[in-house]
Amino acid sequence: MRLHRLRVTAFGPFAEPQEIDFDALSGAGIFLLHGPTGAGKTSVLDAVCYALYGSVPGSRQAPGTSLRSDHSAPDTPTEVTLDLTAGGRRLEITRRPEQDRPKKRGTGTTKDKAQSWLRERTGEGWEALSRSHQEIGEEIEQLLGMSREQFCQVVLLPQGEFARFLRADEGARGRLLGRLFDTRRFAAVEALLAERRRAAEAKVRAGDEKVLGTAQRLAQAAGHGVDLRDWPMPRHQPGDPGLAEAVRAWAAVARCSARERRTVAEYALAAVEGRDAAARRAAEEARELDRLQRRHAETARRAALLAEAAPDRDRVRDLLDRARRGALVAPALEMRGAAYAAHLTAAHAETAARAQLPPALAEAGTEQLGSVEQRLREELGAVGAAHRAEQRSAEIGRERATLEREARAAEEQHQESAEWLARWEDTRAELAERVEAAQQAATLGEQLAGKLEPARMHLTAARRRDGLDAEAEVTSGELLRVREESAAARERWLELKEARLRGIAAELAEALEAGVPCTVCGSERHPDPARPAPGHVDRAAEDAAHARFEEAEERRAAVERKLAAVQEARAEAAAAAGEATTAELLELTADLSSRH
């Protein structure tokens, strides 16, 4: 990020519009912002922070405070405009806080809402991007890579905090560093770990209590056996080490004792179950005897009742016999009725049939009608035979034509076969020569295929070897360049470090205060503190040079690793390609391919 110009109006102590040209101030690379107390040094930094993030550092953003200057005219709006370059983009941010202004009509004041504008410098001038506070904040935070809190802690070191840090004790330094670098997350991690430790202890204690409760229930269930009297339950408390092992050993003894008693109880139970089964069988036999006796009594009672009803039963049996005899005659009567109905139907059918006969045969008898029928059947058979003879004659004609065509085709095929057999010897000799030539070609093709595949593999490896040679040459040049950059960055860092060490007294003198002992000599008087010499190098410049040197070293190591990998791959390709050149392998592969 680089600041170009800052304009403030009615902001903080600046009642009149003020403009700061940072390009002119930073022409020498560094500038100092100084002045008496209350001159507005901190307000300039507050204005930069407000322009970027829409608020000033936290220590100055107290409730009830206002950013507006108390000495400005009522109709002059409070406004901050910052021209800067961030992320390679030239931007202009203008912000107005919420403020009171005189009403345009009447008396009194009205409140204007906070407003923001963001513009970007393009080839055609300034282009408006957004007027949303949220969008502008997200855009600036993304370009700078820092939130407002991080910007205030890292870039805007609070006034007087460094000197107070040098004089403070260990606890105060810790609190100050916590405010500067936000160490709350480390305290939160420490508290979280402590909470997890307490939770784990509580969980272990709860588990031990559960184990002891289970052991108590086991003791109640196991009773007072001889083994348990010799091996009493452990007297450990929840949380004591070895509780689980002691309870497990005691439970093993209780389990063995319980198993022995269970075995004895099983034997006793088996004996009792045997006696119970015998008693159940006896009771079942008694119930069966009682059931048979009741059934015999019921049968005797029913036999007496049947003897009393014998006259009625004989009368009903006589009626059943007469009904059976009547049922035997019923089918004959039904057949007689059906025959009579069929006779009537046949008589009607005969009358209808005679009505269709010629008049001469209308009254003829059965024999006369039979002879006429026989004669008509014979005539019909003769006509059918003649019709079938005509059909057969047509079929014979068609078969004769078919046989003639087949005979001509067979003759032609016979002639073609004779001609083919006459040429067979020459054709067989020619085919034998072609078979032999094909076998020789197949053998030669297999041989050439066995040579062609290795040749292609060698050609591929040779091409890869040539490509890796070119890449290795390019990487070697790159390595030489990054080595030179690393050496130059290291030399620059050492120069800045030496220059800073020569002017370190000026940095220490900046922290001196009247009446406060010097941290080096202990004197409370500072008659002639050191002043920064022209071109003084501060710690930020030294750290930036060291960071550039480390980046150059990382690039050099990365290029060296890349060159080593390329050289290793080139050695593998050269071993696979052999001593032949790519042109020779290409010519050999082309020859083998054409021959194959």
Task: Describe this protein's structure.
With 596 residues, this protein is of the alpha+beta class. The chain folds into 3 domains: 2-145, P-loop containing nucleotide triphosphate hydrolases (Rossmann fold), CATH 3.40.50.300; 183-308; 367-595, no CATH class. It has helices spanning 22-25, 41-53, 133-144, 148-154, 161-167, 170-181, 184-222, 226-230, 243-308, 310-356, 366-502, 504-510, 539-577, 582-595, and strands spanning 2-9, 18-21, 79-86, 89-96, 99-102, 109-112, 115-122, 125-130. A 6-stranded antiparallel β-sheet has the order 2-1-3-4-7-8. A two-stranded antiparallel ribbon has the order 5-6. Strand 3 and strand 4 form a beta hairpin. Helix 7 packs across helix 9 (243-308) and helix 11 (366-502) crosses helix 13 (539-577). The longest helix has 137 residues, at 366-502.
Q: What characteristics describe this protein?
A:
two-stranded antiparallel sheet; 8 strands; extended; Rossmann fold; 8% strand; 596 residues; six-stranded antiparallel sheet; single chain
Strand order of the largest sheet: 2-1-3-4-7-8
**What's the main sheet like?**
6 strands, antiparallel
Residue-averaged pLDDT:
81
Distance between the termini: 68 Å
Give the total of domains: 3
Structural class: alpha+beta
User: What's the shape?
Assistant: extended
The number of helical segments is 14
Percentage of residues in DSSP E strands: 5-15%
**Rg from Cα:** 62 Å
Number of strands: 8
Following the backbone from N to C, one meets helices and strands in this order, namely EEHHEEEEEEHHHHHHHHHHHH
The proportion of residues forming helix, as a percent range, comes to: 55-70%
Which spans of ≥5 residues are poorly predicted at pLDDT below 50? none
